[in-house]
Amino acid sequence: MSGNQALFFNLMVPTGFMKVVKILEIIGAILLLIPSKRALSLLILSPIALNILLLELLVLGGLGAGPLLIILIGIIAYQEFDKFKALL
Questions:
Q1: Residue 53 to residues 35, 46, 66: CA-CA distances in angstroms?
Q2: What's the average model confidence in pLDDT over 76-81?
Q3: How far apart are CA 56 and CA 40, in angstroms?
Q4: Comparing C-alpha atoms, which of 23, 21, 26 is closest to residue 47?
Q5: What are the TM regions of this chain, as residue ranges (predicted)?
Q6: How far apart are CA 22 and CA 28, in angstroms?
Q7: Range 54-64 average pLDDT
């Protein structure tokens, strides 16, 4: 890594922020496996997926897995739409 990539990761890793994100990703993945908890999982994983997409676009300068994550979360959100109706 070099340039903006190295600067970003050198700022984030020592703070412990990435450890918190990793723990939330694991919790979200476990909840995703439980059908009755998928909506809760989306509440945890959606902001993380959006940040991955923005990181790829703004810091890394290209696209990777971000768009795929957003599409997959959109599919699950559509399937769980009944649980999100009250928020709209």
A1: 26, 11, 4
A2: 91
A3: 25
A4: 21
A5: 20-36, 48-78
A6: 10
A7: 88
Cα torsion 15, 56, 84, 87 to 10°: value is 70
Name every residue whose Cβ is closer than 8 Å to that of residue 28 and which is 6 or more positions away in sequence: 41, 44, 45, 48
Find the mean pLDDT for residues 5-17: 87
Question: What b/e readout covers 46-58, taking b as 16+ CB neighbours within 10 angstroms?
Answer: bebbeebbebbee
| Residue 87 confidence (pLDDT) above 80 | no
Q: Which of 87, 76, 88 is nearest to 41 (CA)?
A: 76
Express as a percent the part of the chain with pLDDT over 90.
58
The span from the CA of 69 to the CA of 61, in Å, is: 17
